């Protein structure tokens, strides 16, 4: 026992030492001991980037600083340290793939990078197989968010949002077409594809995609820019790599493409270059004066200020400043560290196992068997997706599509020796001069009216917004299609004597409008049709939409279906459909003088003549001797007075107030009746009458046969024949054509009803053509200065029968048009008679036809009451006799009665 105990102790020491060596060796490879009670001392993480690049020179120091900060802070990973394994991809897809495979041999739990979208596409397939999360700080290709790459996470903003921001900028400045200049790789192609989708939402488009290969020579780029400079659009969107981007502006400046006629917009690569320079390189700033660019927005925080201070103390840096990619790389490392900490706290192990599918076959020297699968990769990926962390770049949290929430960009304008922020863009509320952090607290408002930016200094140091396009300087004239009409050649037709080959009203208007433009428009007119029949205008417009022609000039009516495929200018001629029918002169009738009034009107008018004469006779009989005499004479007076008022030739004077009132109102009624009768009779004897019952659109709603007629000669013959002899009852056509037709036929026909459509003629252009807008403005100027009317009078002068075509059929005037006058007159007669009879009755009550002699004594009061009762029962004959007495006699008798009554009252009893 004594001999065995030392031996056992020695063996135990060797065993412990062996285990310690094994643990250290496994720790070097990032492999934990299979125990759930201890955390690993070291966890391997990888980094893939192009060290010698604009992005790499900022990112490498940031990643190293992040790892150092994490390892020096026990509150993050405790006793566990991160072991950074960095590989340089050398900006090569092939080398980057090789470097990524070598990195995977080191048993890393996650990889930071790469910065290139092209390399990210290839490496994503590797990490998918090995289940190693890939956290990129610079791969912005929108397609990397696809379900095809489940282990790819993007810690920066996707180009999907950046292109949405550029599309909103294009819309804000009211441009419709852009030319995309981009590098022809996954990053460039997919980014520009996303730009096209975003522009289409705003009814804009990419008119040309100018792509060049990665690493293109100066000659290739110069040829490319020379080509796009010959095109129409002057709005360029540049989406290239930071390391070669400034070369484009250097060549553009040599080609004189940085003047006030141009608009340049770049993606965030430009600020990646300029932000890395402190102070900004004067030569670089001189190349990009007036350019608009974007930068991923990162909020100003104390954390960010601390990092800026720390950056100045980093010794292993190659630049004095850093770009936004450095911030995203720094946050990527911290974000991964917090996720690993959460992962380890959930008692998860870190183990690797061989993949049976990765074997060396056929004697290959590739060490595929050295690649191992991260057994807990899926769990770490889930932890990453659920982690919420606030870093230098703000809140880091993924949406269901694995994109960062709250995407936002700074909108910057290059000018002078620095960069000026003119606003911000966020997916929350579009363009604004307020920072996105303040807008998140308010309701979202992305309406067009809410978009706002500060003023821009454009290329050429001007604040005037460039037009954004010019007529292409490629020697190709504008292809203008012109309808070759068979009829109404005043509008547009072929002209062999003219150098342009066409003439007419529409051509003159177009040429006059083009002459007002501030730039030349070389054009070539192309006839459409054979001149034997009028061409199809719908097919003509469709040919413009299909890019067979650039524009259509002629009598093209603006209708809904056509506006869906082309853009029209402001209408230069108002138009609408009207109906033309034959007319004839009315025949004179012996009884035409009775037609102005209906029978009811004649009867009521005659009745009122008699009524008014009788009323005036009643009111004047007691006062006016001209209305007295034998009954036969008085009847004749009534009739004579009644009908003589029709001509204002009555001889009898009226002396009573009520009689004059009635006569005054009646003479007013007679004046209106006479005027109406005269006007109606004149129209009946002179107006043209329709030969059909069609008086407008309503008259054509019945069943009818529709015929297509060729020209004005067909119109004329068909209308003259009429429907009974193989012709037509009416013609429906546009007003300008009908006006010409009316002038041809010297007013033999006429327009009935109103225009039942409202439209106009315009010039048609391809969708979103800027010429349509400029020519619309020119047409308005022609209208304001009177030139448009002068051209109209030259070709389409109004015919001499224009006044006659507006006449309408005259029908007899009915009682409904005058019953108000008759009512007023009747009420006046009634009121006058009522007042008059009340007055007469009052006189009659005081008048006693059987009065006694003056010497008799007055009777007592009771006798007088009895006498009044007898008065009330007086016969109607007595009343008529009283009325027939003259007014002067009645007044004398009443005075005498009053004196008698007063005398009896004064005598003694």
Automatic annotation (TrEMBL):
GO terms for cellular component: membrane. Residues 479-798 form the Ionotropic glutamate receptor C-terminal domain. It is a multi-pass membrane protein. Keywords: Disulfide bond, Glycoprotein, Ion channel, Ion transport, Ligand-gated ion channel, Membrane, Receptor, Signal, Transmembrane, Transmembrane helix, Transport. One of its GO terms (biological process) is response to wounding. Glutamate-gated receptor that probably acts as non-selective cation channel. PANTHER family: IONOTROPIC GLUTAMATE RECEPTOR. This is Glutamate receptor. It comes from Lactuca virosa.
